[in-house]
């Protein structure tokens, strides 16, 4: 038979300090961000299904947004935030935020023959994997009132909120 447990003994002396470990790799957080706007010389009207070509780069250090196609292409998997700020003038505007050919959010601003431009803004969080594409597209051809001038802009912005990369404890 097992007897009664004895009392805990005194704490021992600390051991010798171990050898220094090998240097590790410094973790660098992944980055992805862009902000683009329509130039004043942009031609309209756009057709339904056409990506809006925001052709003036404000920021695009990683090159994830393509001004020729109007599309953002994901390189870093994770959650992104996209925002569209549109100046609406001389026509109503309806556009969709698209992901891989599917509308994930739709926005509409009626133009009531106002003497000055109005604005329409919207944004959405999207989970993306490498190769996914996101863009802004005209939803109805008669509602194509994107506008840009010297004093008012229409912009498209996106950035990585957090990464899904799990190859390092820093990204877990």
TrEMBL record:
<dbReference type="Pfam" id="PF00386">
    <property type="entry name" value="C1q"/>
</dbReference>
<keyword id="KW-0272">Extracellular matrix</keyword>
<feature type="domain" description="C1q">
    <location>
        <begin position="27"/>
        <end position="167"/>
    </location>
</feature>
<feature type="region of interest" description="Disordered">
    <location>
        <begin position="1"/>
        <end position="24"/>
    </location>
</feature>
<dbReference type="InterPro" id="IPR050392">
    <property type="entry name" value="Collagen/C1q_domain"/>
</dbReference>
<keyword id="KW-0964">Secreted</keyword>
<dbReference type="InterPro" id="IPR001073">
    <property type="entry name" value="C1q_dom"/>
</dbReference>
<protein>
    <submittedName>
        <fullName>Complement C1q tumor necrosis factor- protein 5</fullName>
    </submittedName>
</protein>
<dbReference type="InterPro" id="IPR008983">
    <property type="entry name" value="Tumour_necrosis_fac-like_dom"/>
</dbReference>
